[in-house]
């Protein structure tokens, strides 16, 4: 995990802030995380944008008396120092649903970024350190039938051992196949 002094130095070079209560620089490429709340608007292609709100909380805030629940990502054994308390995504002003179960087991988040790849809107989160490091990717796409942005895929990949990964595909009824484009 990046130490606070190193994070402050990196952010100073990138034009951001090391304090979670101060708004980061407009349209940062990447946000470096510590305990606190973050909100950033990522400008995508053309006039499209993605607003991401993230809250990083101490592990003990969610589990004050300890827990038998094991955080699978972000630590090389033991309990992480921090967890994601909340992760909200808005794409072009519309909510993109991301349930707690899609991120509650990710410990020690370090960086957050977002991008667009064709029709896919992607939120990327990196966390952990060394053998406990990971990269999480949530891929959203607009559903014409549902008139909303929906989570299509979640990919978790170990940082040092990329052959260790989880991929979850989400499907939604979009009507008969011959009506889809």
Main attributes?
about 180 residues, six-stranded antiparallel β-sheet, 2 helices, four-stranded antiparallel β-sheet, mainly beta
Describe the structure in your own words.
- The radius of gyration is 17 Å and the shape is globular.
- Strands 1-6-7-8-9-10 form a six-stranded antiparallel beta sheet.
- It has one domain.
- Residues 1-27 have low confidence and may be disordered.
- With 181 residues, it is mainly beta.
- It has helices at residues 4-14, 59-62; strands at 31-32, 36-43, 49-58, 82-91, 94-96, 109-117, 120-127, 134-143, 148-158, 165-169.
- The longest helix has 11 residues, at 4-14.
- The protein contains two helices and ten strands.
- 8% of the residues lie in helices and 42% in strands.
- Strand 8 (134-143) and strand 9 (148-158) form a beta hairpin.
Topology:
Layout: H1 4-14, E1 31-32, E2 36-43, E3 49-58, H2 59-62, E4 82-91, E5 94-96, E6 109-117, E7 120-127, E8 134-143, E9 148-158, E10 165-169
Antiparallel strand pairs: 1-6, 2-3, 3-4, 4-5, 6-7, 7-8, 8-9, 9-10
Mean pLDDT score: 80
Question: Could you tell me how far the N terminus lies from the C terminus, measured between alpha carbons in angstroms?
Answer: 43 Å
Class by alpha and beta content:
mainly beta
* Percent range for β-strand residues: 35-45%
Residues in helix, % = under 10%
Label the overall shape: globular
**What about the largest sheet?**
6 strands, antiparallel
Number of domains: 1
């Amino acid at each position: 995990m990046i130490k606070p002094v190193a994070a402050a130095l990196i952010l100073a070079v990138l034009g951001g802030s090391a304090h979670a209560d101060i708004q980061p620089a407009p349209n940062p490429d990447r946000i470096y995380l510590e305990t606190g709340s973050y909100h950033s608007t990522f400008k995508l292609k053309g006039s499209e944008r993605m607003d991401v709100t993230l809250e990083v909380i101490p592990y003990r805030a969610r589990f004050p008396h300890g827990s038998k629940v094991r955080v699978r990502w972000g630590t090389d054994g033991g309990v992480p120092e921090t967890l994601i308390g909340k992760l909200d995504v808005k794409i072009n002003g519309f909510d993109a649903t991301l349930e707690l179960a899609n991120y509650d087991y990710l410990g020690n988040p370090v960086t957050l970024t977002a991008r667009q790849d064709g029709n896919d809107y992607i939120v990327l989160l990196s966390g952990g350190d060394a053998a406990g490091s990971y990269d999480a990717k949530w891929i959203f796409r607009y559903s014409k039938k549902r008139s909303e942005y929906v989570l299509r895929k979640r990919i978790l990949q170990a940082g040092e051992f990329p052959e260790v990964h989880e991929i979850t595909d989400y499907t939604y009824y979009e009507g008969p196949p011959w009506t889809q484009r």
